[in-house]
Amino acid sequence: MTTVEAPPKARSRARINPFAGIWRRPVAAASLVVVAGISVAVILAPLLAPHPPLAQDLLHTLSGPSADHPLGTDVLGRDVLSRLLYGGRPTLVGVGVAVLVYAVFGMSLGMLAGYLRGWTDRVIVAVLDIMLSVPAVIITLAVLAIFYQSNVAAMLTLGFFASAGLARIIRSSCIALREELFVDAARVSGLGPARIMARHILPRLTGQLLVPIFLFSGNALAIQTGLGFLGLATPAPAPSWGGMVGEAAQIMQQDPYLLFVSGGVIGLMSLSFGLVGDGLRDLEQDRRQATGGRLRRPVPATASQESAGPSDGAVLADGAVLAVRDYSIAFATAQEPRTVVDSIGFTVRPGEIFGLVGESGSGKTVTGLSLLGLLPSNGAVTSGSAWLAGTRITGLPERELQNIRGGDIALVSQEPMVALDPYFTIGSQLAEVIRRTGDVPGGKDAVRQRIRELLTSVHLRDPDDVARRHPHELSGGMLQRVIIAMALAGSPKVLIADEPTTALDVTVQAGILDLLRSLRDEHGMAIILITHDLGVVADSCDRAIVMEQGRIVEEGSVEDIFYRPRHPYTKKLIESTPSIARTEGRIA
Ligand SMILES: Nc1ncnc2c1ncn2[C@@H]1O[C@H](COP(=O)(O)OP(=O)(O)OP(=O)(O)O)[C@@H](O)[C@H]1O
C-alpha cells in the first residue's frame, strides 16, 4: 500500500532578517536611524549642501548659526554644514573601504579555516596570530609614509589587519556549523566544499557578521578621523570630519563651538555604530534562546579515508553492485585506537533490499557512512575494501568521492528535518542537487519539471506547492519523502537508508517502507536498510546481516534469519521483538 501525503498548512518563512525586532529596542533603532540618516545626507551632499564646501566668505567668518549658514561658518567663512556634508564623504568612504576589506578577509579566512580544518586551518590560524600581534595603527601609519595622504590605502591596511579578529569569530562558528546534518546532507549529495560554504554556511554567518561590522565601523571611524585630524588622510583644502576637528582645535580657545559641531557628528556616528552593534547582538541572543540552540548531528562526520589493502578487482562476483570485503573501521581515542567494525564482508545485488541489523553501537551507521566517505575525522577504514559497480571506493580522494556521492550512492538519514537546510525552499534544494548531477540539460523549466517528477515519484501530492515550501512547513513523513526524492535525483545504484523511519510515527513509517519497496521495484536500485528493528527487516528486506559489536554473526535470506537463526545473538534479538516472535510462530 502506498500513501499520498498532502502538505499541511504553510507557516512562516525560515530566513531570518538580522534587523527583525530592532524596532522593539528603541536605542538601537534610533541609532540605526542616525547612521542611515547621516549616511544618506552625506551621499546627497551635492543636493543638500547650501554652499560649495570650499567657498570662502571672509566678511562672515566664525559667524555662528544663521538662516544662510544653519551651522555657522568657519575661520575662512566657509559654510560648516556644507563642509560637514562633503567632509563625510572621504570619511565614510574610508570607513566603507575598511569594513569591506574587514568583512571579505575575515569571512574568507574564517570560513576556509573552520570548514576545511586540517593543515589549511593550521596555516590560517598561524597567519591570524601574526596579524593580531602586529599593531594595526602603526602599520597603517607606515603605509601612509609610502602612500602619503591616501585615505584608501590607510583604511585598506586597517581593515586587513583587523579582519584577523573577525576571522577567529567566523572560524569558531563555522566549526560548529560543519557539524550540522544539513551540511552532511549537502556533502552526501555530492556538493564540493566551495559550493557548501557559499550556499549553506555563508548565509548563516551573514547575520553574525553584522554585529562585528557595526562595532568595527565605530573603530574605523575613530581611526579615520584621527588620521584626518593629523592631516594624513585627506589632502587640504578638501573637507573631512577629522580635518575639520583639526581646524577647530586650532581656534578652540577663541571659539569652541566649531569643535563641538564637528566632534559631535563624529561622536554621534561612532556611538550609533556601537549601539546598533550591541542591539543586533542582543537580538541574536534572544533568537537563540527562543529556538533553544541548533540541532547537531549525534556523530560528527568528515571525510577521512585511508587507503586500504591491495587492489582486489574480482570482488564483484554474482553481479553484485556493492561488495565489501574484510572491512574494518577503527577510531582514534584518547587511549588507543578502537576497532568498531571488525573484518566484515557482504555483497548487495541490484534490486535487492539488504538489511544491516543489530543493536545500538554494533557498527551499522559507521559502516554506511564509511561507504560514502563520511566517517568522522577520527575514524578510518583500517583494512579491506569496498567496491561499487566495479570501482574501488575505499581510499578514493575526496574529489572523486564527491562525484560518487549523490550519483552512484546516496544516503537517506534518520532525521529528515536536520538533513535539510531550513534557509532554502525544498525546490531550491532539489534544484541544486539536480543541477549538480548534470542529468537535466536545459534551463529552469527542465529543472522545475524534474523537481515535479521527483516529488511525484515519492508520492507527494501537489509537488509544486511542496517545492515552494521551507522544510519547517512540512510534516516529518513529507520531509523524509523529500529526502528520498533528493537521493533519487542522481539515479543512484545503491541507496543507503539509515534508520529512515525512526523519527516517524508508526503509520508514517509503514508508508515510507512501502515507498522504498516501490522505488526499488521501479528503479531496480539496491537499498541498504540500516535498522535495529527486526520487524522492519522482516517486512522489507530480501537478505540481511546481523551485526554484534562490529562483527557479522549471521547472514542470509530473511527467511533463514527468522526461521532458522543459528547464532544465539540473532535468537535473542528475535525474542526481544515480540511481534516477530509471535508472527513468525517460532524461534529455533
Ligand atoms: N567519532 C567516534 N569516535 C569514537 N567512537 C565512535 C565514533 N563514532 C561512533 N563511534 C563508535 O562506533 C561504534 C559503532 O557506532 P554506530 O553509530 O555505527 O552504531 P550503530 O550500530 O549504528 O548504533 P545506533 O543504531 O545507535 O546508531 C559505537 O561503539 C560508537 O560509540
Automatic annotation (TrEMBL):
Pfam families linked to this entry: ABC_tran, BPD_transp_1, oligo_HPY, OppC_N
ABC transporter domain: residues covered: 324-574
Database matches in InterPro entries: AAA+_ATPase (IPR003593), ABC_Ni/Peptide_Import (IPR050388), ABC_transporter-like_ATP-bd (IPR003439), ABC_transporter-like_CS (IPR017871), MetI-like (IPR000515), MetI-like_sf (IPR035906), Oligopep_ABC_C (IPR013563), OppC_N (IPR025966)
GO molecular function terms listed in the Swiss-Prot or TrEMBL record: ATP binding
Species assigned in the record: Streptomyces graminofaciens
PROSITE patterns on file: ABC_TM1, ABC_TRANSPORTER_1, ABC_TRANSPORTER_2
Family as reported in the entry's similarity comment: Belongs to the binding-protein-dependent transport system permease family.
Native organism taxonomy: Bacteria, Bacillati, Actinomycetota, Actinomycetes, Kitasatosporales
Record-annotated ABC transmembrane type-1 domain positions: 88-277
Transport as UniProt keyword: yes
Membrane topology qualifier: Multi-pass membrane protein; Peripheral membrane protein
Region (Disordered): 289-312
Protein name according to UniProt: Peptide ABC transporter ATP-binding protein
Transmembrane domains' residue ranges: 27-49, 92-116, 123-146, 152-170, 209-236, 256-277
